[in-house]
Amino acid sequence: MGTEMGIALVFAAAFVWMATTLVILSAIDRPERKARRQERREIRADDRRRRIEYRPVAPGTRPGPRSRHPRTRRLRPH
């Protein structure tokens, strides 16, 4: 068996080992991730229920119309 073949076998074995490890770890973590997603979904639903209702502003407290328009930027050739 040549050196190149030995190196290829080592890399192939390492790749298979890494792939198997990742598959096993992702299968173990799946229920936990599902529970976390469900928890986040419930938190968002609670936030929607507890939205702040804004009251209208009392008359006379809003600032008047602006007297000056904001400057528009124009590109000018040099």
Determine the structural class based on helices, strands and strand pairing: mainly alpha
Query: What number is the mean pLDDT?
Result: 80
Largest sheet, if any?
A: none
End-to-end CA span: 72 Å
Oligomer: single chain
Unreliable runs:
none
**Tell me, what's the shape?**
elongated
User: What portion of residues belong to β-strands?
Assistant: under 5%
Task: State the total count of DSSP E strands.
Answer: 0
Number of DSSP helical runs: 1
Radius of gyration: 32 Å
Order of helices and strands: H
Helix content: 55-70%
Keywords: Membrane, Transmembrane, Transmembrane helix
What do you see in this structure?
Keywords: Membrane, Transmembrane, Transmembrane helix. Residues 29-78 are annotated as: Disordered. Residues 55-64 have a biased composition (Low complexity). Residues 39-54 have a biased composition (Basic and acidic residues). The chain crosses the membrane at residues 6-28. The protein has 78 residues and is mostly helical. The chain has a domain at 1-53. It is 60% helix and 0% strand. It is built from 1 helix and no strands. The longest helix has 47 residues, at 3-49.
